[in-house]
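Researcher: Please translate sequence to structure tokens.
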Amino acid sequence: MIHSMTGYAVASAETPRGALTLELRSVNSRFLDLQFRIAEELRAAEPLLREMITARIARGKLDCRLSLGGDAAQARQAFNADAVGQLKALAEAAAQAFPGAAPLRVADILRWPGVLTEPAVDAERTRALLDGLGRRVLDDFCAARAREGARLAAILLERAGEMRRRLAEVAPLVPEAVAAHRARLAERLREVLSEGIEERVRAEVALFAAKSDVDEELTRLAAHLDEVERVIAKGGAAGKRLDFLAQELNREANTLASKAAGLRIADCALELKLLIEQIREQAQNIE
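Model: Translation complete:
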């Protein structure tokens, strides 16, 4: 199955300290680029998360956010009488040093570090919760990327099919274009032969051979399209391979355009290049 590099998933689990929330989101990137935003008290969970993510994700710029708290955590906060006593002593000393200073407000007291305490984080229980939470979020995340990947695969196959139709239109045009080019060349050769310039005759013949032979380009384009369809059917981390095939398709389309012996073939080559560019753009979204 083809996977997109764009995805999002989030899930939470309850702890004595409130909700443990894990959020994953990703966009395109040439490689796997992990960015962690984790609460300081949960920093020890980063290696576990990194291991879980790298086991299932190959490419993309992935943002992982892990937080702990919320309304439930605030409800479980306790008043630290010792910290308040220390703060009161400091406030009295400050009032003696600065008699005109305003007294502390309740809001100031509650914001003072250590006045409000929370239950300590249970490392073992949190790790067990995070293990299950991480698997659930990664399942949702990979499923989202798979759904987007299926849409991208359908677009790529549609573009590949459109290219095949263009190639089918070009093939019958080649003999007619070659015949017309041969007629023009014969006329030019008659002019040249009247002048007796043998080297120019050879140059014109060589030019005709180069301009008229597009069978190789048509064959390679068809072969590359076969490979595109094979890679999509195989699935997995196919983005880099598809991007390379888009470059090869573009190379052959450029050669076809440069050798085009007629206007209709040149127009068809241009349409092929437009379709190839659309394939390339979508391939860059694939893992």
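Researcher: Any highlights?
Model: Residues 217 and 252 are 6 Å apart (CA to CA).
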